[in-house]
Design a protein that fits this description.
This protein is mainly alpha-helical. It contains 21 helices and 5 strands. Strands 2-5-4 form a 3-stranded antiparallel beta sheet. A two-stranded parallel ribbon has the order 1-3. The N and C termini lie far apart (136 Å).
């Protein structure tokens, strides 16, 4: 009897231990579900047992997510049917009485969580933002609604733009009703050339036409159109006009069309523009006319070795030299020196650059231009250095650059020039004071320090 009593007692204890173990397993599962919210579905343990074919049995997790029925939890415990997907964060338990798995929403703290969720749902609308609780059909419907919403917003924006701005076709119609026609640059230039060339146009109308043409021919393509419609030759012929104001504006238009435009440069020199410009500079003309003629000449010579060669043959350097002997032409002196500097440096840079087939051909063209020997022969070394006595700092800067470039060819001439030596000493003293003042004001690399460096470099090379 005693043995039977102890056996019954042991059996009861074993049952209690088993029950405790089961309950612990359930609560552990619920805790794991709460701590790992990234899993949308409950984890079903994989069986280590394989079927007779040696393959692992297919579990619910292997099924297509679109085929799974979604379990919608509430705040009450509900039975989970086989094949249902449980949203992440749900509380899951094993009902020991029925043996079914049950789930519900997690309990809120003091009702605050429910209030926040409710406000969020109201703010976002009826769509549940938890992607883990969507079925495939619900996702498709939600995406379709989003696309419709974007399309509606886009249409609304387009409608708003239409209200603010009118289409170009409507504007053209309205302009035509007002007798206002939108013209292209080509059409405008045709009218301006016609007005300039018309014998019925007054002098003021011709000048106004040239003034407007100068604006349009700055653009490279417009300058080529200007050439094709015969406007370039008309302007070149205008350089022979007896009216000084027409000469001035014709030279201005010519210079604008020639700037960095090789095709126009070639046509201009073949049309006799170079000779006409040199005649204007060599004869007695108003300063305004010579200023525009020098501008056109500079535009023709830059980056055009053939024009430079013809310029030297026609005595162009002597013509420019004569400007230094004419009264009232002082403002042109620094422009002439700047042109000489640009032409000399242009050739030097090309010779120092890497040579290709096209570059080699251009270098051969520049080698035929004997500019530097002509500059030295006509004593431009002294003509340039004498300009250092001018009071403007900008003029001195340009002259100092030109003297530095000419130093390789004029060094002996400069060493024997006492006036140049005196001028350089005065400039050094002046720019030392100005550079020191700049430094006191906190400008360590100022403009006057740069000029002082140029003066010191020249003095050093002459020693």
């Amino acid at each position: 009897v005693a043995m039977s009593h102890w056996a019954g007692l042991l059996l009861t204890v074993a049952k209690v231990n088993l029950l405790v173990l089961v309950v612990s397993a359930v609560f552990s599962w619920s805790s794991l579900s709460d701590r790992v919210p990234e899993f949308a579905l409950t984890k079903i343990e994989e069986s280590d047992i394989k079927d007779d074919s040696g393959k692992e049995p297919i579990t619910e997790d292997d099924a297509d997510p679109e085929d799974l029925e979604v379990f919608y939890p509430t705040h009450q415990w509900q039975t989970i049917r086989p094949g249902q997907a449980v949203p992440a964060g749900s509380h899951v338990r094993l009902n020991l009485q029925t043996g079914d798995r049950e789930a519900k929403l997690p309990d809120s703290e003091n009702g605050k969580s429910d209030m926040r969720e409710e406000r969020r749902r109201k703010r976002l609308g009826k769509v549940d933002v938890d992607s883990n609780s969507f079925t495939s059909q619900e996702l498709k419907k939600a995406l379709a609604k989003m696309k419709e919403s974007e399309k509606a917003e886009r249409k609304a924006h387009e409608e708003e733009v239409r209200k603010k701005f009118r289409p170009i076709e409507q504007l053209k119609e309205e302009f035509e009703k007002l007798n206002v026609k939108m013209e292209t640059d080509y059409e405008i230039m045709v009218k301006l050339i016609s007005k300039f060339n018309s014998s019925a146009s007054t002098l003021d109308e011709k000048v106004a036409a040239l003034y407007d043409l100068e604006y349009y021919v700055h653009q490279v393509d417009n300058a080529k159109d200007f050439l094709s419609m015969g406007g370039l030759q008309l302007v070149i012929d205008g350089l022979n006009s007896t009216e000084a104001v027409l000469k001035e504006h014709a030279a201005f238009v010519l210079g604008a069309a020639l700037s960095s435009n090789p095709k126009v440069q070639i046509e201009a020199i073949e049309g006799g523009a170079l000779q006409k410009l040199l005649v204007i500079l060599a004869t007695e003309q108003p300063l305004a006319v010579k200023k525009k003629a020098l501008f056109a000449l500079s535009s023709m010579l830059r980056h055009f070795p053939y024009a430079q060669q013809q310029f030297l043959k026609l005595g162009g350097l002597q013509v420019l030299r004569s400007l230094f002997r004419q009264k009232g032409m002082e403002t042109l002196h620094v422009r002439v020196v700047t042109l000489l500097y640009d032409l000399i440096v242009e050739k030097m840079l090309l010779e120092d650059s890497q040579h290709g087939d096209q570059m080699e051909e251009k270098i051969q063209q520049y080698r035929q231009v004997k500019l530097v020997p002509a500059v030295v022969e006509q004593d431009w070394c002294v003509v340039v250095s004498n300009l250092l006595a001018m009071p403007e700092h900008d003029t001195r800067e340009k002259v100092l650059k030109t003297v530095s470039v000419l130093m390789a060819f004029c060094k002996e001439r400069y060493r024997g020039d006492q006036a140049l030596s005196t001028t350089l000493s005065l400039l050094r003293s002046e720019y030392e004071e100005l550079a020191a003042e700049e430094q006191r004001e906190g400008d360590k690399d100022g403009y006057f320090k740069e000029l002082l460096g140029s003066v010191n470099t020249i003095i050093q090379e002459l020693r």
